[in-house]
């Protein structure tokens, strides 16, 4: 029991150390959700009024200052200035998100309305959080942008690093298992399906700060299960990447890249020998 009490005291000291330097994870998650509810209040209350929205904005600004307050000594500007700049960027983020949603509607035959996309499409949710977190990442705020994107990851299975550079009209269908790395560059009108990895060829601490994830140019479609790796890998515009492709070299514009596989169908009564499993 004495050992446990000593350990509890040790944890308390660590807690005192950490809580001064990092935002609260729970508050960050709540802030992320409340930002989305502010942008799309009908997700919470279809009768929401202008006074309610204004109150919501005021509370968000208070919550944001509370979140990044512990980080102030690491920031290159005051919390007040960052607060002002972030919320000044919200109208532009909203416009980009509505363009994204319209792109979903125009492309996905299962989409019935803009409202349906905003309400329950996981790809749109992940893009929303990314676009908000990316602005904070650009302000060089530690912890919070990544916390926001990891919260979206936990809800959707889609991992987008807030440092990635993503253009207009991104379409993510189904989405589960998608990974978009920190130095990825994605152009406009790109479509990505489930299980796609835009990653690095290798993981090594010496690669920090270097371009290690691919560049995807405009109007590219990447089908499910494909991995595109490497900082020097460029997928030229108007290219289609088929399913289950492993790509570590650049391809020119207007390419079609696909993986050939052999599928054999036979009657089980025709042969009695065991099936050879190749993994």
Please describe the topology of this protein.
Elements: H1 2-19, H2 25-39, H3 50-68, H4 79-107, H5 114-120, H6 122-138, H7 144-156, E1 159-160, E2 165-166, E3 171-172, E4 179-180, E5 185-186, E6 191-192, E7 197-199, E8 215-216, E9 221-222, E10 227-229, E11 234-235, E12 240-241, E13 246-247, E14 256-257
Parallel strand pairs: 1-4, 2-5, 3-6, 4-7, 5-8, 6-9, 7-10, 8-11, 9-12, 10-13, 12-14
Walkthrough of the structure:
The chain starts with a helix and ends in a 22-residue tail after the last strand. The longest helix is centred in the middle third of the chain and has 29 residues, at 79-107. It is 42% helix and 11% strand. Helix 3 packs across helix 4. The protein has 279 residues and is an alpha/beta fold. It has helices spanning 2-19, 25-39, 50-68, 79-107, 114-120, 122-138, 144-156; strands at 159-160, 165-166, 171-172, 179-180, 185-186, 191-192, 197-199, 215-216, 221-222, 227-229, 234-235, 240-241, 246-247, 256-257. The protein is globular and about 65 Å long. The chain folds into two domains: 1-156, serine acetyltransferase, domain 1 (Orthogonal Bundle); 164-260, 3 Solenoid (UDP N-Acetylglucosamine Acyltransferase, domain 1). Strands 1-4-7-10-13 form a five-stranded parallel β-sheet. Strands 3-6-9-12-14 form a five-stranded parallel β-sheet. A four-stranded parallel β-sheet has the order 2-5-8-11, with no helix packed on it.
């Amino acid at each position: 029991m004495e050992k446990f009490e000593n350990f509890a005291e040790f944890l308390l000291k660590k807690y005192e150390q950490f809580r001064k330097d990092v935002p609260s994870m729970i508050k960050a998650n709540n802030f992320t959700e409340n930002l989305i509810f502010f942008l799309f209040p009908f997700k919470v209350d279809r009768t929401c009024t202008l006074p309610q929205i204004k109150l919501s904005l005021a509370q968000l600004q208070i919550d944001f200052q509370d979140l990044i307050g512990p980080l102030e000594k690491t920031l290159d500007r005051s919390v007040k200035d960052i607060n002002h700049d972030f919320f000044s960027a919200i109208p532009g983020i909203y416009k980009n998100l509505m363009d994204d949603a319209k792109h979903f509607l125009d492309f996905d035959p299962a989409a019935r309305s803009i409202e349906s996309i905003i309400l329950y499409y996981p790809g749109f949710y992940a893009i929303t959080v990314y676009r908000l977190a990316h602005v904070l990442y650009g302000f060089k705020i530690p912890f919070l942008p990544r916390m926001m994107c990891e919260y979206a990851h936990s809800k959707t299975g889609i991992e987008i690093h807030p440092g990635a550079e993503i253009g207009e009209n991104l379409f993510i269908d189904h989405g589960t298992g998608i990974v978009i790395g920190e130095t990825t560059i994605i152009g406009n009108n790109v479509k990505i399906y489930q299980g796609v990895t835009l990653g690095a060829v290798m993981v090594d601490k010496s690669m920090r700060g270097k371009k290690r994830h691919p560049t995807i140019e405009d109007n590219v479609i990447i089908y499910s299960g494909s991995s595109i790796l490497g900082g020097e890998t460029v997928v030229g515009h108007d290219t289609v990447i088929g399913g289950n492709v492993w790509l570590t070299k650049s391809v020119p514009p207007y390419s079609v890249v696909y993986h050939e596989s052999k599928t054999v169908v036979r009657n089980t009564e025709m042969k009695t020998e065991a099936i050879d499993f190749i993994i």
